[in-house]
Design brief:
heterodimer; A: about 375 residues; alpha/beta; 6-stranded parallel β-sheet; two-stranded antiparallel sheet; 12 helices; globular; B: about 325 residues; 5-stranded mixed β-sheet; 14 strands
């Protein structure tokens, strides 16, 4: 009766907002309004994301990262969201939103450091308004709402954007956060990356709602269902939502329909639950990068030669970040006792002394990967 | 200098802090128009307005989660949880988020948040309204836990907690809110976190207590004195980090100790204090350290007196310690 392969139920949601169709052609009635510079920036970042992702998977397989949560397939949503942000806007992401974080200013090495389990991963440089890569599902949503609320209290023109997945919309923190956002009219954009899966649990098992976007109605805020692999539609919708937020019109929930082409993490085997037909369809026919490329080539903005040059350039850039991340020294164990509080407590000082004495006494010492 | 009870002292601290620093804001259920179900925030919305005194939706995790955002952004939110028992709804945000903002970011982001909540029994409160959950907070790295017993300490510790750069769980004694009035200075003053107070000097046995149990411990000490037993009473005031030195100095002097708390015995904060005394003063002890605590049960309102530590139980423990 139970099978290890789950077919995604054939629910037809309302048509998502779309500018660029999966085949790279503009939808009827749609026109390109974006500058070549912007389109190329979106394209460049998506390529970066795909290459970076591949590299990090390989590093994990080599044992040089503890684990990794791939983002392949979700590049359009992440890049569109982050490129829409201004410097003063704060980005709140999960462990699968490293690309978005990098686009908004987090050095790429911090993403690699995160999957290395290194404390430096969270040391976001000053002036970079990226609030971490949250591991607790949906926990970042109330934080994003709170910061937005603070911005409103201070009459700032900035806003916040929180990224989270379809699974997150089942967590209490999502509901409490979005509810607060509506009540406080907080200048926050809530972007749900519906990539079809929460590890092995398909989207239709998360909720009886036909879409996730319509949950916004329950909270009194606008909800937008968008083709998450259409980087132009995502950019326009995110911009519009940010503008609404800055104008005091409150929050927006955007559901970005996308697909997780890779496993949940490098410890997961999606062949146990994912149909290969579905995966193939999303991979071959709905790829976000390919459809923009087709569009750019049609507009005379891109060529094979440029692609080759870009790949080479991005690979070199990524290699530098990886090297920096892998060669970052492991801090001394006494640093574990710092930053728990502003000043270590007497108990922590005692415990630190105890650990150091133990290490000193021990003949075997400690080695780190 | 004015005579104030504990709730008035809290209210005074909030007024002062909000008057001095416009980043300070208060948020929670019923704290605005109603002035708080215990009137802790009485008069604040009239004085400081709706943006700074916020009636939130009924959602503890949402209250704490958004307060974390506000604090990280640079506001100084003071979130009220109506009864400590309801804070469990917000445990993920308190124990695993607020407590870790600083360490996760190695100090780039911090969370100067105060969460205030009343706790404790003795008022025939219904379930969830009296739960003493301090151990859960003490056990979470990154949180500070403060539990004043007196109006003077409540004001001074609350002002210090608001100033503190780390998240503070500020526990208020429900039955102590209006129990006594005392002189509380009108202006700003602080009582330092992490420092216990020796509120009654003695030589035979050390009684360590906090919050509503301090009055019970003092009552026991008075009665013990009539029987020729000199008890030293320590009001711990801060539970995390707690004042090890004052406890150890006292135990080394008396050789006997009793820890008193309402919370259930197993894995309560008392166990941590006993372990600490074991670590640092074992050979000064004349008798095992005793704990007079709530039992590992859920008491019904009509039976709560059997569960709450009483002066009688403390006296019995002291006499046992004296004759061991």
């Amino acid at each position: 009766m139970t099978s290890t392969i789950q077919e995604q139920k054939n629910i037809r949601p309302p048509e998502p907002i779309s500018v660029l169709a999966p085949d790279g052609l503009l939808q009827p009635g749609m026109h390109l309004e974006e500058s070549p510079e912007l389109l190329l920036a979106l394209y460049r970042w998506m390529n970066f994301g795909r290459l970076f992702d591949t590299r990090l998977i390989n590093l994990q397989r080599q044992g040089r990262l503890l684990t990794y949560a791939p983002i392949a397939g979700q590049e359009a949503t992440q890049v569109a969201c982050s490129l829409s942000l201004q410097t003063d806007d704060w980005l709140f992401g999960s462990y699968r939103d490293g690309l978005a974080c990098v686009v908004h200013g987090l050095p790429a090495e911090h993403v690699a450091l995160f999957f290395r389990g290194h404390p430096k991963a969270g040391m976001v440089p000053p002036q970079v308004n990226v609030f971490g890569q949250q591991i607790g599902i949906a926990e970042q949503i109330p934080h994003a709402v709170g910061v937005a609320w603070g911005m409103k209290l201070r009459r700032a023109t900035s806003a916040t954007l929180a990224l989270f997945g379809d699974g997150a919309t089942s967590e209490g923190a999502f509901h409490e956060g979005i509810n607060f956002a509506g009540v406080m009219r907080a200048p926050v954009v809530l972007v749900c990356q519906n990539n079809g899966w929460a590890i092995s649990v398909p989207r239709y098992k998360q909720t009886a709602s036909e879409t996730l976007a319509q949950k916004a109605l329950a909270y009194g805020i606008p909800g937008r269902l968008v083709d998450g692999n259409d980087v132009i539609a995502m950019y326009r919708e995110t911009q519009a939502a940010l503008t609404r937020a800055r104008n005091g019109e409150g929050p927006t929930l955007i559901e970005a329909l996308t697909y997780r082409l890779g496993p949940h993490s490098t410890a997961d085997d999606p062949r146990r639950y994912q149909s290969s037909a579905e995966l193939t369809e999303w991979k071959d026919q709905r790829d976000p990068i390919m459809r923009l490329r087709i569009c750019l080539e049609r507009e005379g903005l891109w060529s094979e030669a440029q692609q080759t040059a870009l790949d080479e350039e991005l690979r070199a850039q990524i290699a530098q970040s990886i090297t920096a991340a892998l060669t970052e020294p492991v801090p001394d164990p006494e640093t574990l006792f710092e930053q728990v509080y502003a000043e270590p407590s007497p108990q922590l000082l005692l415990q630190r002394a105890e650990l150091l004495a133990s290490l000193k006494q021990s003949q075997r010492g400690v080695t780190f990967p | 200098m004015t005579q104030r009870n504990l709730i008035e002292a809290i209210n005074d601290a909030l007024k002062l802090a909000m008057g001095e620093d416009e980043r300070v804001m208060v948020m929670g259920e019923d704290v605005g128009r109603n002035g708080g179900v215990f009137r802790a925030t009485d008069g604040l919305i009239e004085r400081f307005g709706e943006e700074r005194v916020v009636d939130t939706p009924l959602a503890e995790a949402g209250i704490v989660g958004t307060a974390i955002g506000l604090a990280t952004y640079g506001q100084r939110p003071i979130a009220e949880i109506q009864f400590l028992g309801f804070s469990v709804q917000a445990f993920a945000q308190i124990l695993l988020q607020a407590a870790r903002i600083r360490v996760r970011s190695q100090g780039r982001f911090t969370c100067p948040l105060v969460i205030r909540a009343p706790f404790g029994g003795g008022v025939r409160g219904f379930e969830l309204h009296g739960d003493a959950l301090e151990a859960h907070f003490v056990h979470a790295p990154g949180l500070k836990v403060v539990a004043p017993a007196t109006p003077y300490d409540a004001k001074g510790l609350l002002l210090a907690s608001i100033d503190d750069p780390d998240p503070v769980i500020f526990l208020e004694p429900l039955r102590g809110y209006r129990a006594k009035r005392e002189e509380v200075p009108d202006g700003r003053y602080t009582v330092p976190l992490g420092k216990a107070a020796v509120i009654r000097a003695g030589t035979d046995v050390t009684i360590v207590a906090w919050s509503a149990m301090v009055a019970v411990a003092l009552e026991a000490a008075e009665l013990l004195a009539e029987d020729g037993i000199s008890a030293e009473v320590l009001d711990l005031r801060t539970l995390a980090p707690f004042d090890v030195k004052t406890i150890i100095d006292s135990v080394k002097k008396t050789g006997r100790a009793i820890v008193v708390h309402e919370a259930p015995r197993t894995a309560g904060v008392g166990a941590e204090i006993v372990a600490t005394i074991n670590d640092q003063a074992l050979f000064w002890l004349e008798a095992p350290v005793m704990r007079v605590t709530g039992y590992d049960i859920v008491a019904f309102p009509l039976l709560e007196d059997f569960n709450l530590p009483s002066a009688v139980r403390i006296i019995q423990a002291a006499k046992t310690a004296m004759t061991t």
